[in-house]
Amino acid sequence: MTNRLEGKKILVTAAGQGIGRATAVAFHNDGANVIATDINEKTLSALNKEFPNIKTKKMDSTQANEISKFIKTIDKIDVLFNAVGFVHHGSILECEEKDWDFSLDVNIKSMYFMCKAVLPLMIKQNGGSIINVSSCASSLKGFPNRFVYGTTKGAVIGLTKSIAADFVKKNIRCNSIAPGTVFSPSWQDRVNQSPDPVKAKKDFIARQPMGRLGTAEEIAAIAVYLASDDSTFTTGTTISVDGGISI
Ligand SMILES: NC(=O)c1ccc[n+]([C@@H]2O[C@H](COP(=O)([O-])OP(=O)(O)OC[C@H]3O[C@@H](n4cnc5c(N)ncnc54)[C@H](O)[C@@H]3O)[C@@H](O)[C@H]2O)c1
Questions:
Q1: Mean pLDDT of all residues in the chain?
Q2: Ligand 1 atom closest to the CA of 63, numbered from 1
Q3: Cβ–Cβ < 8 Å for 66, 59
């Protein structure tokens, strides 16, 4: 623990598991006052049980009214970490309109709602840092069967740059992180649900040049940097944390 984030109030979405959870814990371990949100009450209460100082709130990041009602109860937010995301498997030919709409809602509209609700607070307090989770499967690189996922994660990079440009004079930074394949509960589900789980796992690992998956903690370490005052000259960028998959 280094207390790099002491005095900072941080709001995390999708904090119930995976990258969101590991990042909420890393923020907490570095001295931040963390509010962890997720749609899943069960995983949130497990987080709160393990870390009683992390406040939790059930919140659906695709619901604008729910978000703005909750943000109105918060006095300040120094850092917003947007981790919500869903992976649809398939090419454009397997992507039905409902899949397209769902992925756009969860992966990008959620970030639009969250940023729009939090920015007025950051403007009022003369600064802040927004961190959005994109992916190596985005405008950075095309991957098979990641059609709508890659589309939305490319949009996350565009949203990040636009917010960075609009609010740079207000001392508000906006960056994104593009992870490679990271071990998480939903990754495990994708493996288990594939027709041949043993092969699916092998293939995921084989496509990573380092020959292993990333850990959620390796993504969280970059998030701590972007949340901290060590990164005060960094805005509008996307940091790849991907074990070399985008080289
Ligand atoms: N795991 C990977 O390999 C990987 C790689 C690149 C990018 N990412 C991105 O990282 C982020 C986290 O992924 P992960 O695999 O670590 O976690 P995960 O997919 O296992 O967990 C996602 C969390 O989001 C929550 N959630 C889903 N819909 C929500 C909603 N509408 N409102 C609030 N919460 C909601 C779920 O309850 C869950 O706790 C996602 O944006 C994902 O696209 C993951």
A1: 97
A2: 31
A3: yes
Which H/E stretch holds residue 164? helix 147-167
pLDDT at residue 132, as a whole number: 98
**Encoding tokens for residue 101?**
């709409």
Give the distance (Å) from ligand 1 centre to CA of residue 36. 13
Q: Give, using CA atoms, the residue closest to atom 7 of ligand 1.
A: 135
pLDDT range class, residue 1, cuts 50, 70, 90:
low
3-state secondary structure of 101: helix
Q: What number is the average pLDDT over the span 201-225? A: 96
- Between strands 55-58 and 33-38, the pairing is parallel
Give the domain ranges of the chain: 9-182+215-241
Q: How many CB atoms lie within 10 A of CB 162?
A: 13
- Read off the DSSP letter of residue 116: H
Residue length, the chain?
Answer: 247
Q: Which residues are catalytic?
A: 149
- The CATH class of 9-182+215-241 is alpha beta
Q: pLDDT at position 2, please? A: 80
User: 156, 169, 161, 43: which is closest to 110 by C-alpha?
Assistant: 156
Strand segments, DSSP code E, in 147-234 are 172-179
User: What is the per-residue pLDDT across 61-95, written as a single tens digit (0 to 9) for each?
Assistant: 999 999 999 999 999 999 999 999 999 999 999 99
DSSP state of 107: I
User: Is residue 166 scored above 70 in pLDDT?
Assistant: yes
Pocket-testing residue among 13, 184, 204, 218, ligand 1, by greatest number of atoms within 8 A of Cβ: 184
Type of residue found at 161: K
Atom 41 (ligand 1) nearest CA: 85
